[in-house]
Design a protein that fits this description.
Elements lengths: L13 H7 L9 E8 L5 E4 L2 E8 H13 L4 E7 L16 H12 L4 E6 L13 E2 L2 E2 L2 H17 L3 E4 L6 H11 L6 E8 L6 H7 L19 H12 L4 E5 L5 H10 L4 E5 L1 H12 L5 H15 L3 E4 L2 H8 L1
Parallel strand pairs: 1-3, 1-4, 1-12, 4-5, 5-8, 8-9, 9-10, 10-11, 11-12
Antiparallel strand pairs: 2-3, 6-7
Helix pairs in contact: 2-3, 3-4, 4-5
Bound molecules: ligand PBG.
Amino acid sequence: MNLTNRPRRLRRTESIRALVRETSLAPDDFVYPLFVCEGEGVRREISSMPGVYNFSIDQVVREAVSARDAGIRSVILFGVPDTKDPVGSGACAEDGITQRAIRAVKREVPGMLVMADNCLCEYTDHGHCGLIEHGEVLNDPSVELLARTAVSQAEAGADVIAPSNMMDGFVEAIRRALDQSGFDHVAIMSYAVKYASGFYGPFREAAGSTPQFGDRRGYQMDPANSREALREARLDVEQGADILMVKPALAYLDIIRAVRERFDAPLAAYQVSGEYSMIKAAALKGWIDEERIVLETLTAIKRAGADMILTYFARDVSRRLA
Ligand code: PBG
């Protein structure tokens, strides 16, 4: 037995563990996702996501203030409109739910960075992320609508546009539309590597965006593929993405690592709704220690290579880190 090296020396006390710790979490690592609905005074808990709400605009402002008080500096807004139609016209409306929410948060919560999720699925009655013809999700016409939506979100004051719909060429189209409208300073965080995942289930309840027929495998990625993730990331970098994202997070740590190693762009990871709900459900049953597992999963995501994490735990965890 050669015990010249005893790794346990560096684990003896919390002080020494803190000194040699390689990965740490801070409130400004997080982007806090918020769902905004119509009405006033609305705070409707999502049954499959305890602790996550549909907020009316007045309430989303309150929630953003409380997030800021916990040290969070970025939110991402998802609109939950009252009315939907086949072409998702609410997505790009000047007075659409997302656009009004962006204006309110930018006005009422100075300094808060506001990202806008850019997709059609919350606004279409069929629940798909693009326009439909003969049961197929069309690419190019959908991209055009996304680009218009991006401009309307930038006009409302969004700092970052976050396209999530996985149509081909969306980054290029959005970049061009933003630049032509005088928004060359608005950044794009591309959901570059987005898998067709069962982990989005609870989100679809929160956003009312479950596809009414078929599924999203025709545009979101096959969970079995990793080289394809690098191709997707490369295409988005070439098209002008400022920040790349991998989504979901915990089941795709290898992908986060691979993208981190190949690309220099800042990398985001999205700890999605199903990841949140699984932890919450087990914690509510008393089977796991929620606080501990939240920190462990977020640390793992950062250790894998994410610079920032979108997580529904953002506010709670930031309070504890403070
Ligand atoms: C919209 C979108 C989805 C998520 C983020 N943007 C749903 C989907 O693609 O079905 C999922 C986020 C989550 O599960 O927390 N396209």
